[in-house]
Amino acid sequence: MDAQVGTIRLALGRADSDAGTRPSGVGRQRDGNRMADQRARELRKTMTPQEVKLWVRLRELRRQGYHFRRQAPKGCYIVDFMCLRSRLIVEVDGAQHGFECHVGRDKRRDRYFADRGFRTLRFWNNEINENLDGVVETIWHALQRSDGADAIAE
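The structure assignment produced for this chain is given below.
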């Protein structure tokens, strides 16, 4: 049995290394996803205090049927929090996001997600520290608006 497993691995290894037997970019995308998953795992282990505070509150929304993922790979990005049901992304921004280079990057990122049907809410760290209830209430209203839009579309 071990010999068969070894043979299968060798066969898979040859197929993966032979670019002529697979469509262009297939292996690279799989490797890119693997790298994004690994980076997302690292980010989940090193969440900021503000991300942790918000995560605790977002998890409470599961009782109402809203499941958030944290540090989730989506496309070529890793988002802080994402609710697929409502197509809502929540980002927690530190002071570095106020610099001009980050503002442009964040706008491109938000446009990328908007083009794919997602809305992005951004909160500063100090908003979470000073007004966590208000932040969660804003998220709750955005979730409710999403549900209402879904009902109207149907």
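Interim note for the steering committee: The chain is about 60% helix and 15% strand. Confidence is low (pLDDT under 50) at residues 1-32, 150-154.
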